[in-house]
UniProtKB/TrEMBL annotation:
One family name in Pfam for this protein: LrgB
Annotated source species: Xenophilus arseniciresistens
Chief location bin: membrane
Highest taxon above the source species: Bacteria
Gene Ontology CC: membrane
Membrane topology of this protein: Multi-pass membrane protein
The protein's name in its UniProt record: LrgB family protein
Amino acid sequence: MEAVNALGQALAASSVLWLSLTLCTYLAALALYRRAGANPLLLPVLTGTAVVVAVLLASGTDYRSYAEGVRPLSLLIGPATVALAVPLVRQWGRLRALWLPLLLALLVGGSVAIVSAVGIAWALGGSWETLASLAPKSATMPVAMPVAERAGGLASLTAVAVAITGIVGAVAAPPVMRLLRVHDPVVRGFASGLTAHAIGLARELPASPTAGAFAALAMGLNGIATTVLVPLILALWPLRG
């Protein structure tokens, strides 16, 4: 029994257990998502995250230990991000024709996302730390977390806000698009990438290469815009704590 306990503790302290749990949970969630006909309520990032969080809570494992265990996965973020340029290059002709409307949509959408998050938090009595943490919530997590920290926010709170924003955006996008009768994959993809970052991209890419390409474009451009707009908007905010 002592040997079994020692083995369990060794696995929990290594990356093997958490890497295996994360990958197996994602594959199972992806299979469920596809079997359910791509039901937005069963997004793998939503169901998979829920399972992992439940395991962490049940085992009493803190997030820092888990993050350290799955650190090897973070090494894949760079190559995966670069690979997103491949479908975008194939849309170069449409991109050149639409660069001005896309730029305006980026500036308006990015600004509204920041101002609305900060404004709602401020109206509810949130501290400056909370405001700074929520401001970059619509950017992808590798961008949002350092931006929030430099503004005086908490990276952990930002990570939660980014995840919730992406999940809600990916779930809400299909019915909203249908309600507004938006069928153009360029518009749908750019809107999803702008508001729901990587999760919106993951939702659009399997449905349409064009939508996926413009979702990737929006996610990347919004990351750049967020690094500029968040400090500017927070500096001009009338009641800084």
